[in-house]
Amino acid sequence: MTKQNWMGIVVGILFASSVNGQVGRLEWRNSIELPMMQNGKPSIGVAGPIAGLSNGYLLIGGGANFPDLPPWEGGAKEIQRELFVYSKKGKTVHLLARDTLAEAVAYAASLCLPNGLCVIGGETQEGKTNACHLINFDKDTGKITALRYPDLPSPLSNMGAVCIENKIFIVGGEFQDAVSDQILQLDLNNLAQGWIQVGTLPYAASHLQLLADKSHNLFVVGGRKANKDTASTLYQTVLKSSDGGKHWEKLTEIPFKAAAAVACILPDDGLWLLSADRGTTFHRVETLIFEAKRASDQQEAKQLIEVKNQLQRNHPGFGREIWRYDLSYEKWKKTGELPSNAPVTTTAVVWDDMIVLPSGEVKAGVRSPKILLATFLK
What we know:
By secondary structure, this protein is mostly beta strands.
């Protein structure tokens, strides 16, 4: 082998080592749990909570759960109103205050803005909502305040949202009876203009993640689309837009389907996928529901529903794997595990060098009261 070839190999190894040395890691610490419920019972957790920062404090509230019975036993889903405020000192997080939202809401988009936590759309006990609010915590009073922002053009839930240079972008989501492919924008410097549509996705999707990098590129991660008579379509696609959602390109696919995922972009130029529903059990449950509707008699339908219920009872959870997508080299790599079963249908909050995963769904119809905490190290 020539001297030049050897030098090329050595330089390549050193370059790879340098690149690998820039990859961060998550150091998981002891989790905390949501406080006792108002009835004095331990919290069972919520899916689709409000989660984000206001004036340096962490807000977690709202969300939906099944407080009496699980759904396979006929339990009714309830939307919650309680909101909890947390303070941080060093690596410790403490409950500081608790309050109630003006209206119970779940499955909204939560967005950290410089002047508060923006809560967009979601579901109330009456159905989907188009309401938008800016929520803030006042330390002097120990209460939250809410400022009304322009309503969405239509009620919408389970969408992706991000803010770039005082412009909020929303992609996808669920209307009352359909799934959206729209990209909406709200200019915070021109609230009177309201929401405008600035583009469309290549396909309709809800339960997706919308993220932005330091160069203001938009990324859509995973998602799903409910279908009328067949099981939902689940996506493992990553889309990128460099022009504010007008045009999209496909990047390297996620190694698996990923709906209701939890993800964030961290300072190591990595897109971190912390959890996702890969849809195996979800698809089987949906298929059994459709088969029961088409059953020829009530006995057959009852048997199919019981099989569906058993699947939900024995749901294996969503695993613990953490995956990282290198935004520079467009490659996925498994990079660790969560300390407990992965929560989906929640929002990752980046709080300085801390990553917070608040509550969420850990099995079909089962929530976790845990608030998972990690420190990002680079």
